[in-house]
Amino acid sequence: MADRDRLFVLTDEQWAALEPLIEACRPRGKTQHHDLRRTIEAILWRHENGAKWRSIPAELGPWWMAAQTFNRWGHLGVWERLLEAAQAGGIALGMAFLDGSNIRAHQKAAGAARKGGPQAERDEREALGRSRGGFGTKACVVAEAGGHAVSFALAPGQAHELPIAPGLLGCLPDVPGWVVGDRGLASHSFRQHIWDLGARPAIPAKRNEDPVACPPWVYHNRNRVERLWARLKEWRAVATRYEKTARAFLGVLCMAATMDWLKVAKD
Q1: Ranges for the Transposase DDE domain (predicted)?
Q2: CA distances for 50 relative to 20, 135, 238, 242, 266, angstroms
Q3: How many domains does the chain have?
Q4: What range defines the domain where residue 226 resides?
């Protein structure tokens, strides 16, 4: 296929930044990809557009190759390692932001393999559930001071983000100066947990609670994590969950967050 017929999803500059990270994280098999860049571009195209695998343009190679690569790498934890590699040396911990978002699940997201147990257990395992917003997933993120994702956690749509928050803080490479969250994280025990870590909480009290210290000059920065979700949800496969398994959807989130980090590095 001539270059003039190629559908380029990544610029040469973007691929130059992404390729060494992929080479460091991807598994080594007996059979190597004929055109790794084309396969990665097919995966990115599919998730940016929220399309079916079979809808991947022919210029980006066989659709099944992209689907197999994405799923295999997801099982091996490659997408999580890729996000970690993109962050290397760039995490600023003057502040850390915690936030959750309800992701509406497409009807095709249901139907993962049962692997034993009733339907309720399968939904819990695959982070799917029904909340006021409908059938979906609760996606929680911890972001660094610049407003870029460090790690994600998934739970069924009806879950509260407070039980997830301590685990996300444990994903940070060091103790942040401030931990910033909205009223959904208002809890005396969670604030105490933050103090015990050596950080300071900036979480406003609920309206029926006594006031607590929450410096406005710190809390006003929470819009950084809200802008992060806005950027991530430009990917249609993040704004709506199409993946049947929690592992696959986590891979989509990590991929989108990796590209967000690389955009910052280029800027």
Answers
A1: 179-263
A2: 26, 18, 8, 8, 25
A3: 2
A4: 92-241
DSSP code, position 172: S
Question: One-letter amino acid identity for 265?
Answer: A
Compute the distance between CA of residue 219 and CA of residue 95 in angstroms, rounded to an integer.
Answer: 10
Q: How far apart are CA 75 and CA 73, in angstroms?
A: 5
CA-CA distance, 157 to 128, in Å (whole number)?
6
Q: Does residue 145 contact residue 93 with C-beta atoms inside 8 Å?
A: yes
Whole-model pTM: value is 0.91
pLDDT tens-digit map of 129-163: 887 778 899 999 999 999 999 999 999 988 999 99
Whether residue 63 is found in the same domain as residue 96:
no
